[in-house]
Backbone:
């Protein structure tokens, strides 16, 4: 039987927050699946771009998606070529393990603060990110 199509490196997305004015989040994120990073101008923009990326990867699969034996998307050969993987305000390593109940579950590591927390929903993820950025 063939090995799993996805390795753990595809579960981790680096999220770089470059500005945070009046609770408006701007930044970029990187995942080995992407050939280059994606930018966002708000928290909703981040959630939409991340959800689109997860859908393209089909990983982790959405809980409500019908499973099949269709071919997996092509995997890139390694992480994207990027100059800086650090945000001006904060940098997070985001691991989305599940997409259940129309939300995400996983863990987030605040790299500057050297702390990791699990989250059970996108709302909890947003509050964790806000609490880390507000401390700086």
Residues:
């Amino acid at each position: 039987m063939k090995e799993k199509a996805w390795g753990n490196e595809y579960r981790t997305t680096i999220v770089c927050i470059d500005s945070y004015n009046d609770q408006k989040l701007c930044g970029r994120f990187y995942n080995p699946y992407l050939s280059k990073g994606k930018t966002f101008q708000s928290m909703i923009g981040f959630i939409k771009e991340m959800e689109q990326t997860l859908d393209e990867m089909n990983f982790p699969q959405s809980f409500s998606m019908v499973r099949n034996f269709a071919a997996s998307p092509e995997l890139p050969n390694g992480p994207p070529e990027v100059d800086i993987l650090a945000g001006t305000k904060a940098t997070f390593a985001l691991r989305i393990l599940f997409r259940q109940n129309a939300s995400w579950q996983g863990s987030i590591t605040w790299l500057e603060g050297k702390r990791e927390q699990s989250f059970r929903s996108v709302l909890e993820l947003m509050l964790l990110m806000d609490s880390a950025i507000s401390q700086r």
User: Anything to note?
Assistant: Confidence is low (pLDDT under 50) at residues 1-6.
